[in-house]
Amino acid sequence: MFRLAPIPALMRPALILAATGLALLVPLAELHADPDDRGYSRDYDDDTEREFDLLEQPGFRIIPLQDAVRRATDRFRGRLIAARLRPPYPEEEERGVELVHELRLLTPRRDVLLIRLDARTGDFLEVRGAGLAEARRKNGDDE
Questions:
Q1: What fold, for 48-135?
Q2: pTM value?
Q3: pLDDT in the model for residue 46
Q4: I need a labelling partner for 102 at 20 to 30 A (CA). Which of 2, 76, 96, 142 fits?
């Protein structure tokens, strides 16, 4: 018969903490796909196949990422920290948007701005985040 060696008394609290931590992480992983403040799921894995199909169509063109970043940084002070292509929200899709450049900028005041641009036209769809007014460039503002 196989028998486990006894666990030393000093290791028992660490094992209990580790087991408790794992038990708490499982529900937290489900929070990652929580809906944003408008009720849409942030987990777009089901929709990505449709977006890849769009990109393979011969007539479907999007603006390059560097152009999207330039448009965003021309309007807002900040440094790009994340970028990805996303499907449009339902109300954006109703307006004819097919694909979105979603950018995150870190502002000089260390706030993060979320900027969504129509990937075909470069039009701004949404900008939100703390410090938005301070990050907005004025006419002739180079800093």
A1: Nuclear Transport Factor 2; Chain: A, (3.10.450)
A2: 0.64
A3: 54
A4: 142
